[in-house]
TrEMBL record:
It comes from Devosia aurantiaca. This is DUF1127 domain-containing protein. InterPro entries: YjiS-like (IPR009506). Residues 3-38 form the YjiS-like domain.
Length: 49
């Protein structure tokens, strides 16, 4: 894996965590995401790039 792809995945992970963490618990629940799942969801998203 090249450094650009690694950086893209890292940046996507960080952005996803920031955006999901800014939501309140009701909004997360509407999306079907528990606050404890944010890291997993962000990691899954970044790995699918």
């Amino acid at each position: 894996m090249d450094i650009r792809k690694t950086f893209q995945k890292w940046a996507a992970y960080q952005q996803t965590v920031r955006e999901l963490a800014s939501l309140d618990n009701r909004q997360l629940n509407d999306l079907g995401i528990a606050r404890t799942d944010i890291s997993r969801v962000a990691r899954d998203h970044a790995n699918n790039l």
